[in-house]
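User: Let's play a game. I give you a shape written as tokens, and you guess the letters that built it. Ready? Here's round one.
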């Protein structure tokens, strides 16, 4: 007689491996964003080549002042936070059901994976302070930054 398995399995390593591969692919996709200007009189007068040079100079100035360009360091923090939240919430539900240990472990693995992915995606983004610094630098030079692409 084929009965239903009463034993719950933790997420397989293959799933975790796929999630890590997804993080790597997301981290490699896309190109670096750059400020986009509204074509005001100054931008038109100096042209694209000078505009690109000014962007590079303002970005370098921000780095020289010690402002971190990317939101690095958030991957581990978000993975740990996700693991903690997933483990605790699943463990509490497991206390009600009677299988707290298994659910806490599964929740921690799932939460850590999701947190790691979120941290990896966020770490590709510019630090908001870096962006504001570059925008201010460009504004002081006569540009009107309308966004980043």
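Assistant: Ready! My guess for every position:
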């Amino acid at each position: 007689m084929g009965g239903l398995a009463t034993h719950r399995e933790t997420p397989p390593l293959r799933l975790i491996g796929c999630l890590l591969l997804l993080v790597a692919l997301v981290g490699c996709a896309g190109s670096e964003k750059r400020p986009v200007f509204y074509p005001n009189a100054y931008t038109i007068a100096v042209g694209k080549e000078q505009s690109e040079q000014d962007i590079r100079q303002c970005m370098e100035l921000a780095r020289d002042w010690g402002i971190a360009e990317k939101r690095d360091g958030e991957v581990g923090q978000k993975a740990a936070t996700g693991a903690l939240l997933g483990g605790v919430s699943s463990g509490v539900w497991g206390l009600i059901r009677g299988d707290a240990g298994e659910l806490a472990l599964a929740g921690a693995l799932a939460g850590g994976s999701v947190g790691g992915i979120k941290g990896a995606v966020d770490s590709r983004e510019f630090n908001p302070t870096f962006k504001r610094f570059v925008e201010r630098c460009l504004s002081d030079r006569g540009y009107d930054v309308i966004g980043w692409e």
